[in-house]
What we know:
alpha+beta, 6 helices
Amino acid sequence: MSKKCQNDDVDRKITIGVCVMEKKVKCGPEVFSAPMGQILERLQAFGEFEIIHFGDKVILEEPVERWPICDCLIAFHSSGYPLEKAEAYAALRKPFLVNELEHQHLLHDRRKVYECLESYGIPVPRYALVNREKPYQELDYFIEEEDFVEVHGQRFWKPFVEKPVHGDDHRIMIYYPSSAGGGMKELFRKVSFLTSHLGNLMLQKLVYSFIFLAGNMISN
Length: 220
C-alpha cells in the first residue's frame, strides 16, 4: 500500500449510520430531539466521526442494497420500523453494530422481556400472565373482584399495574383500591404535557392479553 493510501485511511472519518425512524430522533423537520441531539453532538465533537442519517424514505422505500454504506450502525425498533430489513442490511454490509438487532425482537412481547430478565437473574416484580387467543375469551384461571384479581391462584391486591403483552401498546393502567376511591390511571406516551389520565375502572383486562404486576412497585 502506498504512503498516500495509508495517509488517506488515517485521515478518513469513521462513518456512523443513524438508521432509525425520524420520529425517534427529531422533534421537528430540522430539529433533533434533545437526547439524540446530545449523542450526535458529542460524537461529532471528537472530529473523528461522520454522521449519516438514513431517513424514513430510505428506510421504508429503498432496498437495502441502496442504503448508505457506513462503518458503524445505530438502529433500533419503533412502531412501523422494518427491523428485518435492518437485519438484512447488517448482514449485507457488516457494519459494527452499536446496538444488537436480533434481540430487539424481544421488545415486541413483554412476556419475553420478563423471561429474558429472569434467565439472567435480574430481579423483576411479582407478576402473572393472562393470555387470550381471542378478545373476550373467558378464562377459568382469571378471577376479578372489587379489590383484587386472581391469576392461576396468585392474588394481586389493588393497587396493581396492568400492561398489554405487546410492547408497542403503551396503554398501561394502574388500578386503585376502593379504600382510595377506586378507579384507574392510564399511562401513555407523552402528548403535549400529559403522560397520564385519570378515569373510571376500565375493562381492558377482560378483553386482551395482559401482564399484572404487584402493586408494591408503585410509588406515591
